[in-house]
Sequence to fold (254 residues):
Amino acid sequence: MTQDPWQRMIALVDMNAFFASVEQRDNPYWRGRPVAVTNGRQGSCIITCSYEARAFGIRTGMRLKDGLEKCPELIQAPTRPNRYADTSRAIMASLEDISPDIEVFSVDEAFLDLSHCQALYEHNPERVGNAIKQKVFEASGLLCSVGVSGDRSTAKWAAKQQKPNGLTIVPPDEVAERLADVPVTDLCGINKGVGKFLAQYGVYRCGEMAKLPISVMGRRYGNPGKKLWLMAQGLDPSSINGEVAAPKSLGHGK
Fold:
């Protein structure tokens, strides 16, 4: 059923435990098993792990030795940066079939501006979200989580709400209510330092940001501070930057 168009429709595509998922895809026996990706064959540090490993309390940055104590069946997978980069490029290229307005945010994340192609999906965010997930799977054999909303900050927050393999839609007219009880530090860009500053004014959750004059954030952090003030209310004005180049190096924790 056709729905009313949103003024803006932004999606964030977030690959699930990306490096570990690539290893499980390439090694069928490892699927459904706890896998830890380490910094090389002799590496002692876990840079990311599968969801099966996370269920045992294994986390990024943990020593492999400690991980094996928590889960003796833990499978070590030495990192393969070139393989991850190739998979990432295939995924990002496939997303251009959904919308040409794409910003590669990291090796395993991308923003899509769907504002001008809503009619292709009958203005239905669920339909376009599922189309994104299907396109990613066809290109890589991997699952992803997708967040769809009217601004990029809320879309990124939404993508984290159902992992792995989730689809979370936050219509623009529901953003204020959905974010009201969310800790401000849950939003991308509001780190602990900013959170500590906001706490001085009694602002701990997004719904409390409106009581703080935007000028306070502007004086302390300049224009970025004003943007954070808007983000907490689901009013992030940031556009999609299609000129951002794909990452040339791969970070940890993917």
